[in-house]
Model the fold of this input.
Amino acid sequence: MMQLNDAQCNKHSLLNVMNRFIAAANNMNETIMVPSLLRDVPLEDNASEASVSYNNNIEPSYPKQRDMYEHYLLLKSIKNDMEWGLLKREMGGSFLEMTVKQEEPQQQMSGDAKDCPDLESQFHYHLHGLFGVLSKLTVQADHLTNRYKREIGGGSLLR
Done:
C-alpha cells in the first residue's frame, strides 16, 4: 500500500485517516508482545460502566461482551484487509468479484437511466461511513494499546 506522510495529504483526507489507523494498529501490534495475555480480560475497564440501551423501555439490552484478545484480533484483521485487500472468500472469487456478479443481473433488469443509483451520493455516503469507522477503530487501537501498557506495567493481566 502506498503510504504518504501526513504533510503530503490533507488533514481530512481518506489517506490520512487510513494512515492514522494503520499506524495505531502497527503500534498496538508492536506493543502487545504476548497477545494471549489479553484472553478473558474484559474490554471495558472496571471504572467505566458498560453501555446499556433500552428497547421500548421494557428490558435493558447489553452489548455483546468481547475480551481484549478478540478485539485485538479484530483490529489486526481489519488492518490486514486494508493493506492486502480482501482475500478470496469461501464461496469463490474475491469480494469485489462477488459484488460485481450480484449487481450485473440488477442492472440488466432495470435498463432505464432513471433506475440507476446516484453514484455520487452513494460514494459520499460510504466515504462518510468509512471516515467514522476508521476514526473509531483508531481510537480503539490506541485504547487497547494504552490499556495493555497500563495492565502489564502493573502486572494485573498476569495470572
